[in-house]
Design brief:
Layout lengths: L1 H22 L5 E9 L2 E8 L3 E8 L2 E8 L16 E10 L2 E8 L3 E8 L3 E8 L3 E7 L16 H19 L2 E5 L9 H10 L4 E8 L9 E5 L15 H21 L6 E8 L11 E8 L3 H7 L2 H19 L5
Parallel strand pairs: 9-10, 9-11, 11-14, 12-13
Antiparallel strand pairs: 1-2, 2-8, 3-4, 4-6, 5-6, 7-8, 12-14
Length: 328
């Protein structure tokens, strides 16, 4: 009888201990701080208990899985809004584990991650946004080529330019400048001045082709001519810079052709060279003929939102690949 009573009391004691421990988990997170030095940031988390971390670094944030040796409390979520940090939240992953998710305002490049017995330090810097200038061909009193249904090149290039700008801005990777933002006439000199003023990393000029032979269709990507075929080589101020820009432009053109889907028919010679004035802004650049507006199939495609979305996606993939390559 005594033995049975002892077992019941002892079992109740152990149960109450467990309940008490569950009811009052430890506040293991002591401090969260962010410091800035130049273009670099350091996110630091301090804990009162030792832990085992699993660190996941994402372009737009940080995710940590933290395992402790004790039952832990969930710290409150916060909209920190301190510099680059938008806010953070803790979630219970298990009784002795927390998941920490931190959202950032900017895309970042992570430099290092270090942790000691009671702290984690993550260093990162803001990812530099590249500047892309989009040049919608023609405009205003210059309508460009006329389609078989009476539509104008200037309207197609404007719509495509705006949709491309929106897609690039949405990615968060680029600053985007348009040489014109409405139906207005601007000279090639004004276009070049805008490109140079923007300190562009890349230029994309958008046009549509036209041909007397209405059976001809397809997209074409133009870059500047090879140095040995330039009619006025004396007009090249720096031959070394010209060759470098041409090499970068041709590299992008080949990437772009590779990324275009099968629905975007390419011309027989998709990568070509020409002395288009707008390409002479001293930056890597391409001029894209989006299709032959004089051809029935291309004309319909150029007015199709689905076709434009696929074209824009290909341009964005090519930009991501080209401007993300530090070895270029």
């Amino acid at each position: 009888m005594f033995y049975s009573t002892f077992r019941v009391i002892f079992g109740l004691f152990i149960f109450l201990q467990c309940v008490c421990l569950r009811a009052d988990p430890q506040q293991v997170v002591k401090k969260i701080s962010i410091t800035k030095e130049g273009n670099r940031y350091q996110l630091r988390l301090d804990f009162s208990e030792t832990f085992v971390p699993r660190i996941h670094l994402l372009p737009g944030g940080v995710k940590l899985l933290l395992s402790f040796s004790c039952d832990v409390a969930i710290p409150p979520a916060r909209k920190m809004d301190k510099g680059i940090i938008r806010g953070y939240v803790f979630e219970r992953f298990s009784p002795s584990s927390l998941m920490f998710v931190c959202a950032l305002h900017e895309n970042v490049t992570f430099i290092s991650k270090r942790y000691s017995k009671h702290s984690i330090r993550i260093t990162f810097e803001i990812h530099k946004k590249r500047t892309v200038v989009i040049d919608p061909g023609h405009g205003g009193k210059d309508p460009g080529a006329s389609g078989i249904t009476g539509n104008c090149e200037k309207n197609i290039t404007m719509v495509t330019a705006v949709e491309l700008r929106n897609a690039l801005l949405k990615s968060g990777k680029y600053k985007v400048v348009l040489t014109r933002e409405r139906d207005m006439f601007i000279t090639n000199e004004e276009r070049i001045n805008k490109i140079k003023a923007a300190n562009a990393d890349f230029l994309i000029s958008l046009h549509t082709d036209s041909n007397k032979d209405t059976n001809i269709r397809g997209m074409t990507v133009y870059t500047l001519p090879k140095l040995d075929v330039i009619r006025n080589a004396a007009g090249v101020d720096n031959i070394k810079d010209y060759c470098k820009i041409l090499g970068q432009s041709e590299k992008f053109a080949k990437l772009l052709v590779r990324f275009f889907p099968n629905t975007c028919k390419m011309s027989n010679q998709p990568c070509r060279n020409s002395e288009f004035k707008v390409l002479k802004a001293d930056v890597p650049a391409v001029l894209i003929e989006l299709g032959c507006i004089s051809n029935k199939i291309d004309n319909e495609l150029l007015h199709s939102r689905e076709f434009r979305e696929k074209t824009i996606m290909a341009i964005q993939y090519a930009l991501d690949s080209f401007l993300g390559d530090d070895k270029q």
